[in-house]
Design goal:
- The protein has a 3-stranded mixed beta sheet.
- By secondary structure, the chain is of the alpha+beta class.
- Helices cover about 45% and strands about 25% of the residues.
- The mean pLDDT is about 90.
- Strand 1 and strand 2 form a beta hairpin.
């Protein structure tokens, strides 16, 4: 049960950090190497940042705040963003 709370807190934190990015889903998987966090979005360039600066900063923040040993952030691209209600809602909110 504690893992679900951690995943919920992680999802809320990442959404707050990347508030301008339309995110469909965030998943957390534990493996022997560390933790793999997958962020599904239609705009992976905004998550990665210029020369990877945003994703590096996010990785360091996750290591310190959530005490992850080796967080690995993976970006999953959504090919049809208009089929995701969360992404469409974020696009409308950004346009307003």
């Amino acid at each position: 049960m504690n893992d679900k709370f951690k995943e919920f807190g992680l999802s809320n934190f990442i959404r707050a950090e990347l508030k301008d990015v339309a995110i469909k889903e965030i998943t957390l998987e534990k493996n022997p190497i560390g933790e793999r966090i997958t962020i599904y979005t239609s705009t992976p360039g905004l998550v990665i940042g210029r020369e990877g600066s945003t994703i590096k900063k996010l990785t360091e923040t996750l290591r310190k705040k959530f005490k992850f040993e080796n967080p690995q952030i993976k970006i999953g691209e959504i090919s049809e963003p208009y089929l995701s209600a969360a992404i469409v809602a974020k696009m409308i909110a950004n346009d307003l």
